[in-house]
Amino acid sequence: MQYTINGNPDYGHLTVSLTSGEKFIAEGGAMAWMSEGMGVKARLLGGFTRALVRKIVGGESLFVGEFSHPSGGQVTFSPSVPGEVSHRRLSGDSFILTGGSFMACTPGIDLKTRFGGLKSMFSGEGAFFIECSGEGDLFFNTFGALIEKDINGSFTVDTGHVVAWEPSLNYSIRGMGGLKSTLLSGEGLAMRFTGTGKIYLQTRTMDSLANWLTPFG
Hints:
Number of helices: 3
Low-confidence stretches: 118-126, 179-186
Radius of gyration: 18 Å
C-alpha cells in the first residue's frame, strides 16, 4: 500500500493506492472519492460489542468501511473537520487517541476503548479514549494544525487540545488552580502528563468554536 497526504495543515486529506488483494479500513463517511470498481464493505471493527462501545463512549462510528479493488485503485478520505491528517506506523507498540481522532488504518491495527477515569467525564474530551495497537499504518486527524511535543518530566494542557499520546506517558485530570479558578476562569479541566514520550496537540477545539458561534445562533 502507498499513501499520500495533501492539504495539511488546513484541509488535510488522505489518498491510498491499493494493489489487488489489499484492504484498507476507514471511519464511516470519510470517503471523498475513489477509482471505478473500488469495493466497499461495511464492517464492525473488533465485533459488535467493541464497536458499539466505541460509538457510544469514544465518539467513533459504529461501522467502518473496508475498501479493496480487484486490480488496484485509489481512494481518498477527508475528515469531518478542517485540520491536519497524520500518520503513525505501529510495529507491535500502541498509541492512544482521543475520541473522534481516529480516521483510518490497515487491517493489522486493533482498536480498544479505554476508560479515562471519572474526572474525564467532565473534561470535554469524553470519558473514554481509543487504544490503537498491532502492526500496520494508523491515520488520525486534528481540528486545526497538529503540534508534536516531546515530554520529559511534566506537561499540562487543556483537555480539548489533546489528540494523542504515547502510552509511556502517565496522565491525570485536574482543575486549573483551585475550585474557584476552575469554575470561573473559563479554562475548565486540564490534563497533566508525566514521564517521557510524545504528545500530539491540536491548535483548535470544537468546544471553543461552538461557544464562539452560540451568540450568532
